[in-house]
Amino acid sequence: MFSAWCLLVPLSCALSAVPAMISSVSSDVSVMEGGNVSLFCTARGKPEPTVSWRAVNHPAKKYPSGEQLDIRGIAREQAGEYECSAQNGVSAPSTKTLRVTVNYPPTIREMKFTRSALTALLRCDALGAPTPAFEWYRGSKRLTAGHGTRIQTLGSHSWSWH
Ligand SMILES: *[C@@H]1O[C@H](CO)[C@@H](O)[C@H](O)[C@H]1NC(C)=O
């Protein structure tokens, strides 16, 4: 009886502390600006781990703890990687990251016109996510490259020469 008791005590002590481990985290998500998004991060361990969140790009911003993080009316600046961290003091925290993409419609930020003796150069800068596609028009007529017109697009900028 006595020896069995001695064997059981270390066993129960070993089982009473289990390192925090994230068992599942939501997939990367895309949301329209102004929309709501819920992120999930489930953790196991003994004692019960605390799940906390941080935006990797904005480490100073505070988010409430919990397995579900609700972000309402998301702004484009809140796009990026989010990290959930589960800790219960038994070992180093367990962490996982996911990416939140915030889409918003394109807007033209700047339109520039430069004329020299021989050419006219137009430059258009636009913001949008995903990166906008550009189409050039003169009046209602779509401009295409060729016949003295050149068009070049690089990321959020597009140029046309005539
Ligand atoms: C976001 O959540 C708020 C509050 O729950 C709700 O009033 C609003 O309609 C939601 N917005 C969208 C785009 O679902």
Automatic annotation (TrEMBL):
PANTHER family in alphabetical order: CONTACTIN 5, IG-LIKE DOMAIN-CONTAINING PROTEIN
Any GO CC annotation of this UniProt entry: axon
Signal sequence, start to end: 1-16
InterPro entries, A to Z: Cell_Adh-Cytoskel_Orgn (IPR050958), Ig-like_dom (IPR007110), Ig-like_dom_sf (IPR036179), Ig-like_fold (IPR013783), Ig_sub (IPR003599), Ig_sub2 (IPR003598)
Domain spans labelled Ig-like: 19-101
A GO biological process held by the record: synapse organization
SMART domains the UniProt entry points to: IG, IGc2
Pfam families linked to this entry: Ig_3 (PF13927)
Source species taxonomy: Eukaryota, Metazoa, Chordata, Craniata, Vertebrata
Any one GO molecular-function label of the UniProt entry: axon guidance receptor activity
Name the record gives this protein: Ig-like domain-containing protein
UniProt keyword terms in alphabetical order: Disulfide bond, Signal
Highest taxon, organism lineage: Eukaryota
